[in-house]
Every structure is written in structure tokens, then in C-alpha cells.
Amino acid sequence: MALITKIREKSGIAAAAIAISLILFLIGSDIFQGRSSLFGSNNQEVGVIAGESILLPEFQKKVEEATANYTAQTGKGPGEQEATMIRDQVWNQYILDIAYKNEFDALGLKVSSEELIDMVQGNNIHPSVRQQFTNPQTGQFDKTFVIQFLKNLKTMPAQQQQGWANFEKSIAQDRIRAKYESLIRLSTYVNTAEAQKEYQAQNSKFSARFLYVPFFSIPDSTVKVSDAQLEEYLAKHKDRFKGINSRSIQYATFPVVPTSQDTVEFYNQIKKLAKDLAVAPNDSAFAMLNSDVRTPYLLAYSEIPEVVKSQLGTFQVGGIYGPFKNGLTYSIYKYGGIKKDSLFTVRASHILIAPANKSDSAKAQAKQRAESILTQIKGGASFETLAQLNGMDGTAQNGGDLGYFKNNGSMTKAFEKAIFGFNGAGLMPAVVETEFGYHIVKITDAKTNTAYRLAAINKTIAPSQATLDRVYTQADAFANANGTLGAFEAALKKDKNIIMMRAERLLENATSINNLTNAREIVRWAFDEGTSVGDGSKKVFEQDNQYIVAYLTGKTDKDNVKVDDYREGITNLVRAELKGEKIFAKLSTIKGSLEQIAQKYGAGALVENVADVTLSTGMLNTAGPDAVALGKIAGLKTGKRSQVFIGDNGVFIAEKTAAVAAPALADYTTYKTQIQSMGIQRASYYINEAIKDNAKIVDKRYKFY
């Protein structure tokens, strides 16, 4: 029955796990678009998916259900970040239930009741069912537990029955998704000709000499780009510039920092707490009650802050020590002596040498290399340097440091046994073998099971209410005196002490702005239908340690792409075209060898050579991976020169000097598989995007949250 109870508690978590995989299936681009605000509107529409309207009461009910599940599973209510995640999950479930279901239904994809039974208690158990009904004592899945659970289901509370229904729905949707993705995979086919072409692109080589005049050789200031040219370019390339709903803002920030008076009062408070802690009958309870940041009473040596460790040897039982500073937090400690823990703590560094594969020869080579490195260290070489040069895991960049850890199973068994079987500190005399490879190990802090009784009061210095009020009054006065962007810019010129920040292209559902967290109120103001470009917020937004006054500087519309939305990018592209035409015209009038043409052209012209270049990964020295130039040169006959042509990054005249064709293969299966794998990924992405585009999704959640 204990297992059944566990299953009851965890079925919601399993459903959530399935939901997450389904949500990942939906990800492909930013689908969260929308356009207005709740302020001044009675519209209760949260969004539209495939023509189906999602209303706030229905959406909020599902959010509340998901929030209740989260609270039941974690034992605490969601914070702002978790609440946003929950709303995203609910929204993505709507997309799956509506937009994707339409496509699944059109293809006749479904999960029958017989198939669902088979997934839950038949011969083809779904992995999530198998995971949830695995006996924790034996580690084995037992179908009888499933059957027993289902027999008892009707006697369980309605909430748990609903949880199981949601779980079954999730695994059914997961199965349909798997069928759909299988169809996508089966629809991707690569023939031998395509595989042969890819093989040749990767293995056929050519050498060339070429004259190259880069676009950047002409100063930007000498090429004027008109608005008419920008408009013309955008009209011709609309597919390259996707519209989004966004807002850009500037804002003045008014930091709130403790004054000298606040600091004096804080120190007086710390002194009083230290005196009270010294005589408190229950020092650990007193410390917990008076701390802004609570820490355990019993601490392993590894858990003690470094600044405290340095003085720990001088502590006397019953003594008060500190304050110790860590950022804006100050700590005072009452020392209560030591206690022996059941677990040991150690700090170590390692250099992992992993074999290339599982063969005996690969293992022998890895072991030999590890022992060679160990010998170098024994001879005086730096452990940290050799770890950075040779380590084959994420610790290498930190000199192999693993930090502190305990003998509680957090490390693999063989590694833990070797480490905690070693006494003292220093380099271990032999390499340690584990399933990951061979480890050269240095103990940097010897193992210990000593725990320290430290009643800690941790107080964070903060501005007083008087300081908060003073800065708020200052920010409020600024907002009232500078109600428009023009007034704000004028104020910036007058007062160089004003702190101004920018935030470009905020999206409707953004929750943060630069380093401002939980900034939804500012984002909602920026997207409010009543907020126009040039408007100031005329109110003060409160953040944890500052006040904000915001100004709307720009907006973009998903359905109306304008030059200003991409002005800098389009300007660079048009300017590059104009430079290319200018260089092309000049080069076309010059005759002679490449060197003679370069000399006559003047500054900016380069003559370079490349050898053994492949079409798929070729680099053309200064020109880089210029796809147009690579294609043009590859297509030339050996010994022939091209006409002047414009590439991606500049203008070229090229001569192909040599070519080596890739030898024919009897079997191109490897290249077929390579192309097919990439094709499946692209097909899955594009089909998913097509489904969402076809559903004409309109996300208006930003109006309400």
C-alpha cells in the first residue's frame, strides 16, 4: 500500500513530465504574439487558435488547476517565474488540443481504447507508466501494482481520479505525437544521386587564385542610402523580415541605497542582536528567528563561509564572533563546539581521461595516458595546468576542482570508495578506474566528519523607510515633470547624473527588462493601447532596489512590417549592394593579370591563393566562407578565369588552378543517412511551423498577466 500511496502522489508529476515533452514538441519559434492590454477593455479573449476563441474564465480555471497540482507536488506555491511557466504550459496544451489535434484527426491518427489499455497494463507499457509503477525496493516494474491501483481508483478522491484521467490523456497524446513524428521520418527520402552530390561536396577539392575587393574597403560614409532604396529593398525581400509585436523603451532608474544613517542604525541593530544571542537560552532558535537568511545550526566544514573558516581555529565555545560581511549581508555567530557526523566530507580535484570507446585497447591507451600524466605531476608539474590541458569533463576549465562532496552516493561508487579510503591530503599515488575512465586525483581538503555548532544571525543591510520614501518622492516628481519622451531627453541633457537605460524590442509576454526582474507591469504599460510612442509612464514602477520611470520610444507590428523595424540591418544590406555595384563597375574596366588588376584598382584589392578547398566547408582566406564565390570557383574549368562577380562579402575575379575529384564510392549509405537525419530535423521543424501558422494563433495573454 505504501507504493500505491506513492503512485497516487506522483501521478500528477508523471503527467507533467509528459506535458513537458509535448510542449518541447511545439517549440520552433516565438509563438507568443499579441497586441493590446486589458486596461480600458472588457474583452475577455485570452487568444485565438485555429479560429477557436479561448476566454479568460476557462483559461484561468485551467491555470488554477495546474497551480494546485504544482503546489501539491512541491509543497509550496509558485513564484512569478513558476507562475509564468504554468501559464505557458496551459497555453501550449491548448495549441496541442486544438491546432495539432486538427492535423492528427485529418491524418486519422488516434489512440484506441484497446491501445491505451495496452500502454497501461498490457504488453507494451508506456515508459511513464513503467517509471511510476516501479517498485522502489527492487527497482523492477510490476504490472500487478498497476492493476491493483486501477481496481482502487474509483474509491479514491475525485481529484486523484481526475489526475489519473489527465495522466492517461497525456500518454495518449504522447503516443499520437510519436506516430506523427514517425510519419515525418518516413516521408523523408534521400536518393543515391543526392548522397553522391553531398559526398563530392565534402571530398572533392580545388585550388584557386583570386582577386578580392571586400565591401568594407569602401568607407560607409561615402555610400549614401536613401529611404526610397530601403523601401524598395524591403518590398523585394519581405519574406526575410518577419513581423513581430514589440515595444522599445528608455527608462530612468532611481537606485535606493542605504544612507550613512541607515548604516549606523544597522550596526546598532547588529550589536544588540549579538548581545542578545550571547545570553539566549536557545541560541539556535533565537538565531533562526532573527535572521534574514536562515542557515542550519550544524554545519560541515565545507558549508562554512571561507571568511569564517579562516578564524574558526580561534573560536571558543560560547563565544560571539563577527560580523562577517558577504555582499550586503552581515553575519554574527555563536560557537557551540563540534559534533561528529555520520557522513564524511572531502574536497578533491581530478583529471579524467576517458577511453575513445569500450574496447580493451582503447581502455589500455587511456590508462597509459593517465599514468603518464600522474608521473608528470609526481615530477613537479602543475596539477591544475595539466587538468586544463588534458581533462575530459567540465571540471577541466577549473583545474579539475570537484568542490566539496560527501560519501552519500553523490559520486560513482568506485570513485567514492577510493577517495574516502585515502587519508590526509595530496596527490593519490595511483589512478582511479571508474566506468567513466581513469582519474588522476588530488585531495585538496582531507576528509572529515566534524560538524560545527554555529548559531548564525544573518542580516542584510537595507535602506530605511525614510530613504525609500525620499527616493520615491524624487522619482515621482521626475515622472510628473517629464511626461513625454521629448521632456525626458531634454532633462538628460540638463542633468548628466540621471541614469538612463534602453530596452529594445520587448515582446508581449516578457517578464524581465535588462536586469529588472518581475517587470511585467512595465511591459503591460508599454503594450497598453493607450500608450503611444513618445509617452512617458507618468507613474513610478517599483523594483526591489530602485524606482523606474519609463518612456515608449518605438513599436513594431506583426502585420505591418516597416523599414524602421529593421532600418539598421536593411541599410547595411543596401549599402553592401551599392558598394558591390561600385566595385564591379571599376573592376570591369581593368585588364591584365590578377596582380596587374589589383595594382590598377588600388587600395582594398587583394590577391590570394587557396589550396585543397572543399565546397561544403571551404574558406577563402580574407573572404571567409563566401558561398557565392565558392560555388563560382568550384564550377570553373581548371585553368580558366571567371568574369567579375559579386559575392556575399565582396567582389571577385577567380582562376581555378587545380581540382581533385573525390573517388567514386560503391556505397553512399553513410551520406544518405547524414542527409536524411538533417532532413528529418528540418521537416519536423517546418511542418510544426506550418501547423502553427495555419492555425493563425493570436496570443493575448499579456493583456491579463
From TrEMBL:
InterPro entries: PPIase_dom_sf, PPIase_PpiC, PpiD_chaperone, Trigger_fact/SurA_dom_sf. The chain crosses the membrane at residues 12-32. Keywords: Cell inner membrane, Cell membrane, Chaperone, Isomerase, Membrane, Rotamase, Transmembrane, Transmembrane helix. Pfam families: Rotamase_3 (PF13616), SurA_N_2 (PF13623). It is found in: Cell inner membrane. The keyword Transmembrane helix applies. Gene3D superfamilies: 3.10.50.40. It is a single-pass type II membrane protein. Signal peptide: none annotated. Residues 346-445 form the PpiC domain. It comes from Aquirufa beregesia. This is Periplasmic chaperone PpiD. Belongs to the PpiD chaperone family. PANTHER family: PEPTIDYL-PROLYL CIS-TRANS ISOMERASE D, PERIPLASMIC CHAPERONE PPID. One of its GO terms (molecular function) is isomerase activity.
